[in-house]
Write a structure and sequence with these properties.
The complex is a heterodimer of chains A (504) and B (218). With 504 residues, chain A is mainly alpha-helical. Chain A is built from 20 helices and 4 strands. Chain A has a two-stranded antiparallel ribbon. Chain A has a two-stranded antiparallel ribbon with strand order 2-4. In chain B, the strands form 4 sheets. In chain B, strands 2-3-4-9 form a 4-stranded antiparallel β-sheet, with no helix packed on it. A 4-stranded antiparallel β-sheet of chain B has the order 5-6-7-8, with no helix packed on it. Chain B has a 3-stranded antiparallel β-sheet with strand order 1-11-10, with no helix packed on it. Classes of the chains: A mainly alpha (504), B alpha+beta (218).
């Protein structure tokens, strides 16, 4: 007998793990579940292990101190051999993990796997999603740069909106009066001990339940889940027409996990680590803070909410969303599993996916943010200055100097907060422009106190030239009425409709 | 190797005394209770440790100089930076706190916090257009700190300020949010009635759109 067989036997006689492990991995699974659709759960586990390993390796160097964290990231990036690669693996691994967990969740939802008897598996999964997002947010804080600093400021401001206990929550979150070293050490403890500890424990329970309750069978229209008959039907399915999980189904999991690991390594090698961006010095205010990819949609929602809706929305909607996810298996715990018979479920997934994509896309382009350097960085395109009078050109200068450009684009360049002004004269008359500039309105500040009368005149004269391609300039119908005593023959202007049609 | 490590079958085990079991079960319960008592006794101070930052809130205010009064000229708004009075060795650059000092008249100052009243991002001052703009969600404020447009629900937060020995002092120490002391002080540019923000001083002279109650200011 070979020496390694002796060693194995010696260990096995003491550990006695062979039988339980064999029972677990050889448990029969329904034939059709040996599918590429069933690989996302195991891939999430693989990514979790990758995150733990790379996280431990990063912790060998990282110093969770407000004054030093950023420097240690520089050491990792530039001084330690392959330190940059480990940071990149950890960062990309986090992105992949959130993505794969979300795909896993969507798949499980569409396949009705949350129904009886797997309700608790789903509920644990909901908490594991929240923990994964918690890891992503706290991880972003540990990359202690400008984005992390202002991300914390946003987090603290959201906490501050909680009624009654908001102030206390902010203090507990920050660990002190301001964002500083105590804040970072708190998030370090959360990211490195608390959340991963809970996550690993939940993962163990989650996997345990998958093994003892069996993998969800492939949904077939008309096969109804009933509490009284399901266990017997599932037993028949797995024992008459089943496969042992190892090796008949597991090879797809292994292939996919390897592919995911390769994809993470590929992205890490090609795109490199995330940041860090500038030093976390709040006195450097020339910064445009932005959250990481998976929180961009929140960033978008927060900018589109009307002020009065904001606090209730921030505080209530997440709680309601989590409550819905937890209530789901209790409300819809039996019945059809097939997506062919669950149109609302399919629609819900599509709706959420479309919202997420659109909000994320908007979060990358941030059309609501003023472009802080457009006024000095983006010159007025030449075609808007050609054949203009000196007064009009003076107006172009006012237009740049008064930061109008930060919110208004010209020729496609500039802020998108307000409308592009390249054709403003086709929409507004001179009088309307003067009113709009001086009094503001429609989410535009009033410039009355920031402009002298001559500047206003020059600016409006410049804007009044903005009717390109021989488009007619906007006219004031009431002038025609005053002059001719009647509505112009081909006018679309309604009598007395002035107020409704007035710009707001 | 000829080891046998299998458990002996139940019939080989010695018979247990029923009374002994109930006595030991009782002792086990006492043991659990003892651990629970000790656990609570140990955990209570830990809770105090965790909420320490809340208990110390009252201390988070300190008068600190942001510069000589002569540095600020009437009509100007200037960015200043001070070291937060409550800081640790390890805070590094994070203890640098910026603020805007607006001098309205000789000897009259308003000091604004850098944090946007919406979600705390750093607002930037543009002296040409006399506006503060926030890079995050596009909140805009007038020179007097009152809300001009965008998502903020109030004007900029202000620090209490006074002049002492030629120095402009502010009462600082805590990041302003909607739920702490900063909220209690209305922005000087806003007229607060019943907790809602009405027209700002800058634009009160401007009438609403004729025939409607629609405010003309965003």
């Amino acid at each position: 007998m070979a020496w390694y067989k002796d060693t194995y036997d010696w260990l096995e006689r003491r550990l006695q793990l062979e039988k339980p492990i064999k029972d677990a991995v050889m448990h029969p699974v329904p034939t059709r579940t040996a599918s590429w659709w069933y690989v996302f759960g195991s891939a999430s586990l693989t990514l979790l292990i990758l995150q733990v390993v790379t996280g431990i390796l990063l912790a060998l160097v990282y110093v969770p101190s407000g004054g030093h964290a950023w420097q240690t990231l520089q050491v990792l990036n530039y001084q330690l051999p392959l330190g940059w690669f480990l940071r990149a693996m950890h960062g990309w691994g986090s992105n992949f993990m959130v993505a794969v967990v979300l795909i896993h969740m969507a798949q499980v939802f569409l396949f009705g796997a949350y129904k009886f008897p797997r309700e608790l598996t789903w509920i644990l999964g909901v908490f594991m999603l929240l923990l994964t997002l918690g890891m992503a947010f706290t991880g972003q804080v540990l990359r202690f740069d400008q984005d992390a600093y202002w991300g914390l400021a946003i987090g603290a401001s959201i906490m501050g909106r909680v009624p009654f206990v908001g102030g206390a929550l902010v203090d507990i979150m920050l660990g002190g009066p301001i964002i500083g070293s105590e804040t970072l050490t708190r998030f370090f403890a959360l990211h490195v001990f608390v959340i991963p500890g809970i996550l690993l424990f939940f993962t163990a329970l989650h996997v345990w339940m998958v093994v003892v309750l069996g993998v969800n069978e492939w949904p077939v229209p008309g096969r109804i889940v009933r509490r009284s008959t399901y266990m017997r039907e599932y037993h028949e399915l797995t024992h008459k027409d089943g496969l042992p999980f190892v090796p008949e189904a597991v090879w797809k999991d292994l292939f996919f996990s390897a592919a995911i690991l390769f994809a993470v390594a590929f992205c890490a090698a090609v795109f490199g680590p995330y940041g860090p961006t500038g030093v976390p010095d709040p006195s450097i205010i020339q910064t445009v803070p932005k959250p990481d990819f998976f929180f961009l949609w929140i960033y978008t929602v927060l900018s589109y909410l009307p002020p009065s809706m904001e606090t209730p929305f921030i505080l209530i909607v997440p709680a309601v969303a989590v409550a819905i996810l937890i209530a789901l298996p209790f409300v819809a715990g039996v019945g059809e599993k097939s997506w062919w018979r669950r149109p609302i479920a399919v629609f819900a997934v599509m709706f959420i996916a479309v919202c997420f994509s659109v909000f994320t896309q908007l979060g990358t382009s941030t059309p609501w943010s003023p472009h802080m350097s457009a006024w000095s960085g983006a010159a007025v395109p030449v075609e808007y200055l050609h054949s203009r009078t000196p007064l009009e050109r003076r107006g172009a200068l006012v237009f740049q100097q008064k930061q109008c450009r930060n919110c208004h684009a010209l020729g496609g360049v500039g802020g998108q907060r307000g409308p592009e002004l390249g054709d403003v004269a086709t929409r507004l008359t001179e009088d309307q422009m003067i009113r709009q500039v001086l009094l503001g309105g429609g989410n535009m500040p009033a410039y009355g106190s920031a402009l002298s009368p001559t500047e206003t005149t020059a600016l409006v004269r410049f804007l009044d030239t903005m009717h390109p391609n021989y488009q007619p300039a906007a006219g004031d119908a009431s002038r025609g009425v005053v002059q001719t005593g009647d509505v112009p023959p081909h006018s679309t202007v309604e009598r007395g409709g002035g107020e409704q049609n007035a710009p707001h | 190797m000829d080891e046998s490590l299998t458990t002996p079958s139940p019939e080989h085990e010695p018979q247990r005394d029923e009374a002994g079991i109930s006595r030991r079960t009782f002792l086990m319960k006492v043991g659990i209770a003892l651990n629970a008592i000790v656990g609570i006794a140990i955990a209570t101070p830990v809770v105090v440790y965790l909420v320490g930052p809340v208990l110390r809130r009252g201390e988070y205010r300190h008068w600190i100089s942001v510069g000589d009064v002569s540095e600020f000229h009437p009509g100007e708004t200037k960015l200043v930076t001070f070291r937060n009075p409550f800081r640790h060795e390890t805070d590094g650059d994070t203890a640098n706190v910026p603020a805007y000092v607006r001098c309205t008249a000789p000897g009259k100052f308003v000091v604004f916090a850098i944090n946007c009243a919406h979600l705390g991002c750093p607002v930037r001052w543009f002296s040409e257009s006399q506006l503060f703009m926030c890079p995050c969600h596009g909140g805009v404020y007038y020179a007097d700190g009152s809300r001009a447009s965008g998502p903020p629900e109030r004007g900029l937060f202000t620090y209490e300020a006074r002049i002492e020995g030629g120095q402009l002092m502010i009462d600082a120490g805590q990041m302003p949010t909607l739920s702490n002391r900063a909220m209690a002080v209305p922005c000087p540019g806003s007229v607060q009635t019943n907790g809602t923000q009405v027209a700002t001083n800058l634009v009160t002279r401007i009438a609403p759109w004729p025939g409607t109650k629609t405010p003309t200011i965003g």
